[in-house]
Amino acid sequence: MSQPLCEKCAGLCCRYLALPIETPEGKGDYDDIRWYLAHEGISIFVEDGDWYINIANRCKYLNQDNLCDIYENRPRICRGYEEETCDYHSGDYGYELYFSCIEDLDEYLAKKTQRKKTKGKKKN
Ligand code: SF4
Ligand code: SF4
Fold first, then answer.
1. Which residues pair with 44 in a beta bridge?
2. Is 5's pLDDT higher than 70?
3. Considering all CA atoms of the chain, what is the largest pairwise distance in Å, rounded to the nearest integer?
4. Is residue 110's pLDDT more than 90?
5. pLDDT tens-digit profile of 15-27?
6. Rounded CA separation 23/35 (Å)
7. Ligand 1: distance of its center to the CA of 57 in Å?
8. Residue-wise over 110-122: b if at least 16 C-beta within 10 A, else e?
9. Does residue 59 line the site of ligand 1, with CB under 6 A?
10. 11: closest CA among 81, 84, 91?
11. 99 Cβ closer than 6 Å to some ligand 1 atom
12. Which residues line ligand 2 (CB under 6 A)?
């Protein structure tokens, strides 16, 4: 972050980390995700079929002016941010699924179970 647009930005890309997680397959896996979602600052999203955990957590090197204190030595993930496509433009990320709390996930699972039941009935 120190392209022209970054000067106007609040360091949006420096306030979270997103990591891939295993695609949940069974009840236990979904329950683990419920546990993630019970914590502050955690959300889960699915993009191109892959599941990710998003952790809202400000980078220690983002300074009071919202600029990077270790710019020349920043990690490669930070170097990958391009101002044309970065979080500054936010809006719709096109996630297939997004859960910000346990209730979101429970609702999704209830609908999924309902769909399975309906499908089962159609076959009978
Ligand atoms: S979100 Fe974009 S504009 Fe903002 S600091 Fe990151 S790279 Fe710069
Ligand atoms: S190291 Fe610098 S560019 Fe990378 S997240 Fe932290 S403040 Fe942002």
1. 53, 99
2. yes
3. 64
4. yes
5. 999 999 999 999 9
6. 15
7. 16
8. eeeeeeeeeeeee
9. no
10. 81
11. no
12. 1, 14, 59, 61-62, 68, 70, 74-75, 78
* Residue 90 reports pLDDT greater than 90: no
Ligand number, closest to the Cα atom of 82: 1
Range of the domain at 68: 4-123
Mean pLDDT computed over 50-68: 97
Give the pLDDT of residue 82. Answer: 83
Number of structural domains found in the chain: 1
DSSP 67: -
Q: Name the nearest CA neighbour of 33 among 49, 53, 19.
A: 53
Distance 42 CA to ligand 2 centre (A): 20
pLDDT band at 2 (very low <50, low <70, confident <90, very high): low
